[in-house]
Specification:
The structure is a homotetramer of 340-residue chains. Chain A contains 10 helices and 14 strands. Chain A is of the alpha/beta class. Chain A has a 7-stranded parallel β-sheet, sandwiched between helices. In chain A, helix 1 crosses helix 10 and helix 6 packs parallel to helix 8. The longest helix of chain A is centred in the middle third of the chain and has 15 residues. Chain A is globular and about 60 Å long. The two termini of chain A are 32 Å apart. Chains in contact: A-B, A-C, A-D, B-C, B-D, C-D.
Chain lengths: 340, 340, 340, 340
């Protein structure tokens, strides 16, 4: 335990991303949970809303984060944005796990989310915290926008090869997600008997998460990338698999993509290169993203598996905070998965 | 009930495709099950191997199909091929649900399956029985090669647009299958605790089913089609979803693909056009393939859902036999799915 | 097809029990679906609410059943009861799949359901339609109360031995149900990520279904039966398994219970005696209840498996209607299950 | 990290219990993994057999445990028994997770397992290591027999009340287990498509685990207890729920049982009393057993949920070793579950 710990609040603490964040922070040696906020469970012990939890804090209503130095916000979009200025002005670090600060252009936000951004002036200030690509900016920012679960897996699979100019800027990403990615609010689309024993695509004409992916891919590639992204709902709770199809440019081969990705994995503590395409179960409960590149008749098929609530959410948020506060990047983060 | 019924044998009757075939034939008004053959359950009642079945026939060992006029073979590859000549010489119609007669070129078979074809002279005689595209040839043949479960969904999604020249001959098909597609023989890859709560790609460097797809796509397009096909294992029992990515050629638009597919569905009793991308659950237990075309920024995303054991196997076999024997195409085939 | 078909309306047509009823009736040779009623889907085609359905009827709002001769009501409790008098007065047969008419004593209803019965005078008139035990009364009644899914499996497992005095009147029934038994209205308790990879008991201090079970068991045994009934939620969509523990009275043995149950199964078209304890999958999609009796050191362990939406709901309703209208009991009802 | 760590070998390291043991020990601050043994994966890295593992040890063949001070054996029955004498003579502590040393009477072993015990003289020496009841004996023994997954949940639910004479010695335990309890060897009974969407009872005429339960219950109650125990296979990977039915003796009430169990939970770090009957998901990944007692019309329904691989296997083994070596009982053991 370091001499001084960092005080943290979690807003939206009893949703799936929020609860995952709470569980990670509870075991973090340098961060102390000082406040849990949540609307639906306000006034109840955290463990009443998250069965099996050993955390003894109460969930409180409202948006008062107390004396927290860092605020983890796992809220529906627009909510964190409406409070971010106030939190920042009070000297706190704001870690937003919603989509509110992922797009640097408020107009793009308005287009994709169908409403005006509540804090347009902050959009440029936020750092898109896909940690493996933006460590320096993260270390220097007080407003961290944590990527969505789909963008994390998707960008890890495609951005490096595009940035290096190894592949054509026309990318297909076919993503498969467990149902926890849809959150904890009951709806017919996530009702057990509708999801179980079935797989379906959704958002086929353009999922909202596509916006931030295009923003990042264009910036990395230095030109317009055509992205076709189709998410699918899988009858499982946790896990995302992105299957990405990349065509090497003339003079490049799939082996170049594979070598690039092996190097990337070797250089990053939470990326793991697997010799066979990874099963999502191999990363369940861990902050690791597993990567494989396979050559199918000249096309690079890049698969990336992650736990959508950890590396695709709360784990990545803590990873970014570790960097922001100068802690070791891996501090307090789960590296082991649970098999089976 | 017609004046005379057709006598049928099912070989490999207690595997998943075989058992599905038996159940469909048992309810078929113009076909009578006269013999069930199976190695592992030889000597036992069919219902001892397939719990809940009301069929009273015994499973017999060996390969004697008795006086059957039509032989449905749901056997490991090479087995049916070794017996096909004998069955054909005895005047029977042979319906092979393995891969043995799907490739017209025995050399291609040797390359993809790693062994010499047991009956190379029969390969050209067999009809690739993707019913919607080959009715006339089916009606005239005694050797019907039923497409695999993946090829059925994949070809339905891509062949029409390629045949009409609407899309570029560079196709990505990302397919998702339930575990019953892997058959009934226990192995670690299909052990419950390994499959459950996980999704993974497999055969990423080139699945065997790719061979027959390329054969059919090339023939339909009249030129070489580049196909990238990646199958995935989904934690569910039944169902395949093919998500197919097609780039319209210059001068064509996604709407042209959609119109083509709507027309195809209207003209075929077992194709259904859905206004939203179909869930596999919407076809469970039925011989229907559900189709949707969606425009994502100029790319045609074609999704096709089928029950892998019915339209992707035994149902399509019976559909082909209906045509071969001049019965109504839909005779005895399930059109309703079970929801939920 | 009989000379004249019976016109039927289904109320609550797009819930799980309602939709199952619609699908069965659609294939029934002597019943014609003339009207589908439903609140949430009013004005939409049935297939818009029940994906994959081939039924072309629209769902209508309100409670006007048109010229239907038989009304199948799959509604929340109290709704059917409020309309039953009006339907009966108009000469219709009313088949209620809710709990409203299962208790003959309106006071018991008030106690268990927490509100006054909307039509107390009808309670005595209704017939508890567990078909295997009440065929004569069903044939003579215009108000059929279809048992709940749990009571059907539970009573089949315990009532015969109690009626014959073979076992002590102190019974434990441990029941396991798939999530479709909880209906189609989204709630946290049936949210995919909460149900999946978990099993839990609920209603442990006394589930509402216990009331009708005690009523029937007491009547059959001719004395007060002590019933301990605990239902469990299983991460599957369909199926109920009741595991019932019966202690033979002095002078009787488990073999007597087994013999009784074998005889019962032999005498009833929808009961099947299995030599090994049945898996629920062996009855999925069928109206069959599978039964086994095993001796464990002198205790009779009776297991009964059923599809909760078919034999535990809509299938049993149609079975009762077949009897009521003098049709063959098995007419139009599925006997085959789907494996796997 | 203590001054000196304990060297440990795990035999059968790549089965489910073995792998769980390896993962726990890898994070244990006072135990060092020095050798992993396994037949099927001999010569391969551990992570090749257990996807996602970060453990770099190789799996070795044979039974040479090197310089390990403690041997964790997760082997098929008879294998550990055949090597135990040799290990003990070499001064090692032997922790057997098979059934070999759970029965103190070798004749009972022969009766239930159908073969002669390989080391009958050791049976009396072994301590049945259900930690909550046998801490002193565990601390003094070199041969620890870890209870099976079913017995752990079942005994926790029933033994205390029987020991205190609160309930009749006629107990029904209806247990539900995820498929990982069946181990990692593929078989039709655990093939995904057979297990999924189904629930079934098995071992209904007397499961082997019943033997050790009766031994322990009789000893605790001081008289013969009649136990009826029926296990069920649930379509999930991890988790056991035992639902136990206890009839209070005259003069006692369910509240007495509840009070007893509350006290037991308060006094033991890995028992948790829940106010509502626990879902197995609330203990997934943790060494906690969750307990609830509910009164249903005078019968005590005791439910106990555990992770079958942790508290029902490897976790309990480590818990016992902690006690044996004088470490804190909770050292290195997971207390948090993963939700969802």
């Amino acid at each position: 335990m370091p001499a001084s710990v960092i005080r943290a609040a979690v807003c939206g603490a009893t949703g799936y991303i929020g609860a995952q964040c709470v569980e990670i922070l509870d075991r973090h040696p340098a961060i102390e949970l000082t406040r849990l906020l949540g609307r639906s469970s306000a006034g109840k012990p955290f463990a009443a809303a998250v069965p099996g939890s050993r955390i003894s804090l109460q969930v409180e209503g409202g948006m008062d984060v107390g004396d927290a130095e860092v605020v983890f916000a796992a809220l529906p979009h627009t909510v964190a944005a409406a409070h971010a200025r106030e939190w920042l002005d009070a000297g706190r670090v704001v870690v937003d796990m919603s989509a509110d600060f992922r797009l640097t252009d408020p107009a793009a936000y308005a287009r994709w989310y169908g409403l005006e951004h509540p804090a347009p002036d902050l959009c440029k200030q936020a750092v898109y915290s896909l940690v493996e690509f933006h460590r320096e900016a993260i270390a220097a920012s007080d407003l961290l926008a944590i990527p969505g679960c789909y963008p994390t897996a998707s960008l890890l699979s495609s951005l490096p090869a595009l940035r290096e100019g190894l592949v054509e800027p026309d990318v297909v990403i076919d993503a498969k997600s467990g149902a926890s990615g849809g959150g904890r609010s009951p709806s017919l689309g996530f009702h057990f008997s509708e999801v179980n024993e079935s797989v379906r695509a959704y958002g086929v004409d353009g999922h909202r998460h596509k916006a931030e992916m295009i923003q990042e891919l264009n910036a990395a590639a230095g030109r317009a990338v055509r992205l076709t992204f189709v998410p699918h709902l899988i009858p499982m709770t946790r896990g995302i698999l992105a299957t990405t199809y990349l065509h090497p440019v003339a003079g490049r081969r799939v082996a170049d993509v594979a070598e690039l990705m092996r190097g990337l994995c070797a250089a990053n503590p939470f990326l793991r290169y697997d010799e066979v395409s990874p099963a999502t179960k191999s990363v369940t409960g861990s902050n690791t993203a597993a990567v494989n590149v396979t050559d199918q008749d000249g096309v690079a098929v890049v698969t990336v598996a992650e736990d959508n609530l950890v590396k695709g959410g709360a784990g990545q948020a803590v990873q970014a905070v570790n960097i922001r506060f100068g802690l070791g990047e891996t501090t307090g983060l789960p590296v082991s998965s649970q098999w089976p």
